[in-house]
Amino acid sequence: MIELEDVSIGYCKVPLMNHLSLTVQPGDFWGIVGPNGAGKTTLVKTIVGLIPPVIGKVRFDGRTPRFGYVPQRYALSSQYPLTAFDVALMGRYGQLRIGQRPTRHDVKRTRDELDRIGLDAIAGHPFDALSGGQRQRVLMARALVSDPDVLVLDEPTSGLDLPGEEDILEFLRQLHADRKITVLMIGHHISKVVRVADHLCLINKDAQLFDAGPMAELLTEERLSHLYRRTIQVQRQDGSYHVCARGNEHE
Amino acid sequence: MNESVSFLDSWFVWRDAIIVAVIAAATLSYLGVWIVLKRVVYVPLALSQVSSAGVVLSFFLCGLFDMHETASLPDPTWMALFLALLAAGYFARQGQESNNATVVAYLISSVAALLLAGFIRQDLHDVQSILFGSAVLVETVQIVNVGAAAALVAVVHIVFYRRFLFASYDPDTAGASGIPVYRYEVLIYVTVAVAISAATRAIGALPAFGFAVLPAMAALRLARSMSAAFVVATLIGVVCAALGYYLSFVLELPTGAAMVGLAGATYLASTVRHLRRGSLR
What we know:
- The complex is a heterodimer.
- Chain A contains 8 helices and 11 strands.
- Chain A has a domain at 68-148.
- In chain A, strands 5-6-7-3-8-9 form a 6-stranded mixed beta sheet, sandwiched between helices. Chain A has a 3-stranded antiparallel beta sheet with strand order 2-1-4, covered by helices on one side.
- The N and C termini of chain A lie far apart (37 Å).
- In chain A, helix 3 (104-116) packs across helix 4 (132-145) and helix 4 (132-145) packs parallel to helix 5 (162-179).
- Chain A has helices at residues 40-48, 84-89, 104-116, 132-145, 162-179, 190-196, 215-218, 221-228, and strands spanning 2-11, 14-24, 29-33, 58-60, 67-70, 150-154, 182-187, 199-204, 209-214, 230-237, 240-249.
- By secondary structure, chain B is mainly alpha-helical.
- Chain B is built from 12 helices and no strands.
- In chain B, helix 10 (205-222) crosses helix 11 (226-250), helix 10 (205-222) runs parallel beside helix 12 and helix 11 (226-250) packs across helix 12 (255-280).
- Chain A binds chain B through residues 45, 48-50, 66-71, 75-77, 79-83, 86-87, 90-91, 93-94, 96, 98-99, 101-102, 126, 142-143, 146, 152, and chain B through 36-37, 39, 158-160, 162-163, 165-166, 169-170, 172-179, 220, 223-226, 228-229.
């Protein structure tokens, strides 16, 4: 379990948002949504320990969970001469002792994960030469080979074409169903996030808005319109949600 | 042929210098791969200038407190290393935003060295030879210093290679998986500072900076794996140091410039090959 109680997040001791409370139970699939620059990445980086909270603490039930982090793929330099396999194998580095080389088990684990994700054939290809969707899946394989308790994804479908987006979302849905792994996913488009997540976290630092809870409670036209400062329409059809924005500004 | 014979005949003259140049070139060319990949190519330039300022400061303090005895002089080597390590720690803290910090450090240390040099009582020629090395006349202590720096770099990088790679390539993911990224950043910069301080005093500032950038840039154009990049960069550094020495002897060229010129030519050749390969695709 991950728990934030009355936490302030921000950089260099300057709070961006105050009084945030959130409880993530094992096996939850959280979608974290909000407009650009809303503080989504800051929140996630605080949870995984990359940024200390300005006020308060991030608490864990028992030991600190192992996080499998999937950054935005644009954040990675294209200069490194690394293959897809090299990048995926990095997921095991956190578990190696200092000076230890990856064992046969580490190599096998990485190959298996690449195979599972459908990329075994291109494991030896330069990472930089892969398509956007393939790179994203390699980064997911890297996160998964670390045997994480919590998978954290920062806009995994950003910049992908429609089939690429669908593949990633389907993969995540399947992964969550099979392994019951806890997932925190920052999503650019709420309409995509609501298709896979069971909990929502709405965040907008400019409006000092933070809401977190089960999907059914939070996915209301009023809350989303407040979040995006636009009129948002939510329709529920055959058990799934459809979210769309209207052009006019929300009062 | 005659030049070759006389070059080999005078082996006892240049033996120490070429050993130092080859070790320094190999070490800096290897480290250069990290420097270029981390996009901090100004760091070695700033570090060599900071360590030069440390040497000048040491002489200045000696004059200021009227310390004529060598024993009471704040040792220039240690002062240079101390300031370089301080700067390295600061650059590591800045991370990938370190370009401004390195330029400021370079300018401040250049100005400090120039201003303090005016107050130094020692023969300016002595100070300059300590500052920039001649790459021709090498003392035994410099072989020891450069060799010790190379050994330190080798040990640290063998032990921490994978942590360095993960922390440099993707600091956020490395940090999220529990790797203390800042600690490894500092360690990389410390090894660069140690190697640059030792090399600057032995072979001069220009060759030290040249070897820390050019062989790595050429290698990264040619190599398709990290290990190949390290091996190719180190080989380019070693060959350019040795061949540059030979050319400077037979063509009577400045030694440092001959070595860096060869490294520059290698980089240009690698760029042409890279462009041709790209246009053929």
